[in-house]
Amino acid sequence: MKPLLQKSAVWFAYLGVLLGLPLLFDSILAITIFNQMAIAIIFALSYNMLLGQGGMLSFGHAVYFGLGGFMAVHTLVMIEYETVYFSIIYIPLIGGLIGLLAAIFIGSFSTHKAGTVFAMISLGIGELVAASSLIFVSFFGGEAGVNADRTYGPPFFGVEFFQDVEIYYLAAVWVFIATLFMYLFTQTPAGRMANAVRDNPERAEFIGYSARRVRFISFCASGFFAGIAGGLFALNYEFITEENLNAVTSGRVLLMAYIGGLGYFIGPIIGAVILTLMNSLLSNYTELWMLYLGIMFVLTVLFLPRGFAGFIMMHRTAWIRGKLRSLLLPYLITGVPALLFATAGVAMIEMLHHEGEAFHFLGLPLDSANLLHWLLCAVVATFAYLGCKRTLPQLQEAWESANAIDEAGEERERS
Amino acid sequence: MSMLSLQNVSKQFGETRIIRDVSLDITPGERHAIIGPNGAGKSTLFHLISGKYQPTSGKILFRNEEIQGKTPFAIARLGLARSFQVTNIFPRLSVFENIRCGLLWKEGFGYSFWHLLGRQGELNAKARELLVEIGLADRADYPAGELAYAQQRALELGIAIASGADLIMLDEPVAGMSHSEAESAVALIRKITEGKTLIMVEHDMNIVFDVADRISVLVYGEIIASDTPTAIRANPKVQEAYLGEVPTASTDSISDEKPEDIDGA
C-alpha cells in the first residue's frame, strides 16, 4: 500500500506543479512559454515511446503531430461554421485519433524492422508528407498553412478560451492525462515487451511474441499521443503550417528526448522544458541560440549519454548514502571555472557574429574590432580551462569516495 | 506419439548442403543430445526446428503438427522453447522482468495494454518462484546485462522454462563455463527440465553421457548414429568420425573455447 501512496504522491505533485505554475508566473510571456512546454512535453514523451522504450529511431515523428494539428484546426473551422458543434476541450482527442490513424497506416509497413530500415522509412515518410503538404493545398493550406478561431465553440462552464491562460489550464489537464497514460502503458505487457524487443528482438520471438506486432502497438500509441500534442498546438496557436510536420520539428523532438534522457520516463519531460526555455528565452538574447543548442546536444551525447535525467540519477547512490553534500564543494570548485570558460567562449562566438559592431554581452560592452576584448576573453578562457583541468581530479576523487562501495552502504541500498 | 519428428529434413545455403536428409524421432520425456564435430550443422538443426531457418525440404512435426515454415513466435507459442549458443537475454531489463516477459504469453497476456503488470499477483508470484528455482532471487532487481556469465546462462534457461514449454532445446548450455559452474548448470538443467523433453547440443562428453538418454551423432549434416550412450560409445562409425578417438569422458574439455560453428555466425 505504501508504494502506491508514494506513487500517487508523485502524481499529485506533478498535477500541482502543472496547475500552480501560472500562479507563480503570470506574465504573458510566461504563459506563452508554459503552453509551449505543455505541447512539447506530450510530444517528447510520445517520441520516447518509440526511441527510448521501443528502440525505434524515428526522423519523422512530426508527421503525427502535424497531421493531428491540421485536423484539429479543420475541426475548429467546422465548429466555427457549426458543421459539428462541441466544446474545444476535446480537440486534442481529434488530433490524437488522426495521429493514431496515420500511425496505423504507416506503422503497418514501417515497423517490420527496427534500426536503420525503420529510421530510413521514417525519414522518407516525413519528407513525403512534408512535400505533399505543399501539393494538397485544400487540406494543408500551402505555405501559409491553415488557421481558425478557437472561441466559437460552446463555452465550457463559462470559459470561452479567449485568453492563453485558459488554454494553459486545458493543456495542463491534457498533459497530466497523457503523461499518466503513457506511464501506465510502460507498465503493461505491451509496454514491457516493447523494452524486451528493443533489447533483443530475436529472443522476444522465441518467447512467443512477434517483434513486429510489439513495435506496431508502441508505434500506434506513440502516434496517438503525438497527435494529441498536435491538437493542443492547434488550440494554442490557432494556426498550423507545413513547418509543424517537417524534418525540423521531427529533429527538435529527437533533441528534446535525447537531451532529457532516453532511458528514463521523466527524461523527455526535462528535455522538453529545457529546450522550450532555450527556444523562447535564449532567442530573445541571441540570434545564435540554435548554435548553442547544437553545441549542447553534442556535449550531451559525448558526456551525458543518458541525458539530464541520467545525470540526476547518477547521484542516487551518493544520495542514498547521505554523501551528496560532500560533492557540493568539488562541484562548485570545478563548476565555476567551467562556467567561466563557457562564458568566455560564448563571448568570442558572439564577437565573431557581431563583426565590426559593438554590442552588450551580459551587461558588458564588447566590440569585435577591439583587439583588447579578444585578448581578455582568450585570457579568461585559458585560465578557466586550466582551472577546470586542475580541479577535475579532486572532483573525480570526491565522486569516487561518495560512490565507493562499502558493506554498510550496500546493505542500505538494497533495503 | 513422438514429441518431435524430423522427416528427411535438408537445408541448403546456396550450393552448400548443411543438413542432409536428417530424420529423427524424439519421444516425450526423452533427454536427447546431439553431438558432432564443429561445422556439422548442429546449430543449423536447432534453427530449423525453432523456425529461425526454413528447411529446403522435408517435414518437421511437433506433436504431429507440421511446424516447418512457421515463424519463431508461432512455434514458441506451441510449447517449444530454446536457448542459444550465445547468451541471449534482455540485457537492459531487470532479471525479474526477463523472467516475467518469458511468462507473459503462456499466462495469456498477449499484447495487452490494459493490464498493469504490477497488479498481476499470480504472474509476479510465478516469476519470483522461478527466480528462486534458478538461484537468482537475490539478483532480481539487477539489470540482466550486469550478471556474471554463468548467471546469465541460468537466466536464459529460466526464460526458456518460463514459457511453459514441453520441449526445451539447449544450444551448448555450459559452453565457456568453469568446471564448477558447469556442474551446477547441469544440476539446474536436470532440475528444471524434470518431466519435460530436452534436446541439447553439447561438446562436453562428460555432460552428454551423464544427462542424455539417447545421443545422435551429426557429421557433415548427416545423422550417422542415434542410440543410447552405451551403444554410441561402441559404435565404430562414431569412433571413425571422431578421427579414431572414442568420445571419452575427458575432463579438460569443459572450459575449452571452441570456434563457432560455421552456421552459428
What topology does this entry show?
The complex is a heterodimer of chains A (about 425) and B (about 260).
Chain A: H1 2-24, H2 28-54, H3 62-80, H4 91-110, H5 115-135, H6 137-140, E1 146-147, H7 164-186, H8 189-199, H9 201-206, H10 211-237, E2 239-240, H11 247-260, H12 267-285, H13 289-303, H14 307-313, H15 316-320, H16 325-353, E3 358-361, E4 364-367, H17 371-403, H18 407-414
Antiparallel strand pairs in A: 1-2, 3-4
Chain B: E1 4-13, E2 16-26, E3 31-35, H1 42-50, E4 57-62, E5 65-66, H2 72-78, E6 80-82, H3 95-104, H4 121-133, H5 149-162, E7 167-171, H6 179-192, E8 197-201, H7 205-211, E9 214-219, E10 222-227, H8 229-234, H9 236-241
Parallel strand pairs in B: 3-8, 3-9, 6-7, 7-8
Antiparallel strand pairs in B: 1-2, 1-4, 4-5, 9-10
Give the terminus-to-terminus CA distance of chain B.
35 Å
The average pLDDT of chain A is 89
Mean pLDDT of chain B: 86
Helix content of chain B: 25-40%
Describe the structure.
- The complex is a heterodimer of chains A (415) and B (265).
- Chain A has 2 domains: 22-304, ABC transporter involved in vitamin B12 uptake, BtuC (Orthogonal Bundle); 316-414, no CATH class.
- Chain A is 75% helix and 3% strand.
- Chain A contains 18 helices and 4 strands.
- Chain A has helices spanning 2-24, 28-54, 62-80, 91-110, 115-135, 137-140, 164-186, 189-199, 201-206, 211-237, 247-260, 267-285, 289-303, 307-313, 316-320, 325-353, 371-403, 407-414; strands spanning 146-147, 239-240, 358-361, 364-367.
- Chain A has a two-stranded antiparallel ribbon with strand order 1-2. A two-stranded antiparallel sheet of chain A has the order 3-4.
- The longest helix of chain A has 33 residues, at 371-403.
- Chain A is globular, with a radius of gyration of 24 Å.
- The model of chain A is unreliable at 407-415 (pLDDT under 50).
- By secondary structure, chain B is α/β, with parallel strands linked by helices.
- The model of chain B is unreliable at 249-265 (pLDDT under 50).
- Chain B is 32% helix and 22% strand.
- In chain B, helix 3 crosses helix 4, helix 3 packs parallel to helix 5 (149-162) and helix 5 (149-162) runs parallel beside helix 6 (179-192).
- Chain B contains 9 helices and 10 strands.
- At the A-B interface, helix 8, helix 9 and helix 10 of A face helix 2 and helix 3 of B.
